[in-house]
Structure prediction request, 645 residues.
Amino acid sequence: MTFRIWMAALAAAAVAAPLAAHAQGAAAAGETVFNGRCKGCHDPAIDRAPSKATLSTYPAALIVDALTNGVMKPMAAGLSDEDKAAVAAYLTSQGAAPAPVAQAAPRRPAPAANVGVDVKCAANPPIAATPTDWTSVGLHESHRYQADPGLKAADVPKLKVKWSFAMSGGSMPTVIGDWLFITNRSGKFYALDSNTGCVRWVVSDVASRTTPMIVKSPVSPSGWLTVVGVRDRTARAFDAQTGKEIWKSPPLHANPVVGITGTPLVVGDQVFVPLTSGEEGAARQPTYRCCYFQGAVVALDLKTGQKQWYTKVIPETLHDTHPNAAGTMQQGPAGAAIWSAPTADPKRGLVYVTTGDSYTDVDTKGADAVVAMDMKTGQIKWSTQVESKDNFIVGCTDAKKPVNCPSPDGPDYDFGASPILFHLAGGKDVLLAGQKSGIAWGLNPDTGKVLWHQKVGGGSSLGGIEWGMAADNKRLYVANADTVNLIDEYLRPMGKSPVAEKEPPSSPGLYALDPATGKVLWKVAAPVAPCHYQGDRSRDRSGGGCIRAESQAPSVMPGVVFSGTMDGWFRAYDAATGKIIWADSTTDRHYDTVNQVKNQPGGSMDGLGAAIAGGKVFVMSGFNGAANTGGNGTNVLLAYSVDGK
Prediction:
């Protein structure tokens, strides 16, 4: 990391300043704090918590910021600024390669600097829209379908990497003309040249995992506006041409464990922001008053960022329930986080969201549900729950359970994917939703009545339908992750499988369904293929990390479906038959990136998938999400074009 970039990171978390002068001594002190406060969740990692090895790849300032202002604040209660800085110093000194394990690929060296050097473009022409643009996370009605991609299906087998760009924790990009926009968790919000990867502008204090939405708007001096959700629970709007901030909303929630993972949606003069939380992890602490976050959508004025309405998806009133074994009063109902972007239905005046699990054993109708809200008032028009009593916090499957565990424990069957509004041939509509249970749902968008459901996988906490689905004008495309069953598949030959001989593991892969009925039209298992990244060894159940779960959201163009797997493979499927027509291992080579990172490795294909625009396909390799596998420290944005030209 260069001095200039390091200083920018420190500006986002100034409390990390003691690191520079006292790194060696701080690391020793930090080990003591880590072992006392953090080891139980992170070494070895449990559930969704990032492992110690993964944490060692984060910038020190990002760790301090999480302990001070973010999701880890409740766990860091009582720690001094020096303690937090010491933990960060200790973790960032732990980046050495762990010992190899059986059947594992050799470790590839990490890049010399994890964010590189910003290479500025020589000129920044005005933004000019084209028919091939990809301007939001899901495009029209969350279909993730590019009708005019700028390349043909026959061109897809000739795709090669044109350029690459390394960053820490990058999101899915959006593209308009020859401008590309992308955020990342380290705080750098970039506008790049989509043809070359050079930097048009960068804002260094926007820690985000949301996809920037680009809209034509007089609110911005240039006429082009972009809106993102930020880790500090705010939404921010920028002039897309210059990167100048137009407005920043007030914090949308007081609890530091609350966050924004779903992309804010702009419709007309409104911005719809979904709220999620990390309370499932915070609730491990016996002193934490579990739980009080209730998933919500906040509507903001596009001109000012001021709140218009705030609607919780849990209809029941929050109330005290009982003291836990440590004497801390508990409360509920809570949960129903909204992990993904809302979907707009202007014809009905509705915005649709899907929700996550419950955090307590207080019954609620708002968890694991599909919800329709009035755009203007926020009033809930209907809410359909598909899984009751899915009560979950981190650590409740451990031998020693946290005292705040609900009873009964639920399977953690969140909805993590945006719903898709699909127009059927006969004139009727169907709302499509995918759940981690492995079930795809079809609902009546007027009433919320379930029309059909189809199970495509076994489902699990990190399995089933994770990040999204996609649809063209004929078919619904559903990726099945089934991560836990794959872990069983990898460990079974070693005699270590936790469910060996109980049931065969369900196979991850890609499915095509009839949107009208849910009927399976075709299915293709994720191929078993060479995996070239090391993965995260600290998870006892990872089997080396090279699992082929199909967790990434698919993206579609006429005749072709793009989908990635967690072993680093990116594939294109014939949309009519499911035949694989092209495949690329993003981990079988290193990349010398545009931003001057040498030997940058690829990694897991996960998260929100590819953007197809201007004759190119843009996708992130190395996403390190809840599965904690294949992150390789730094992610790399890959730009594919025909013959790499």
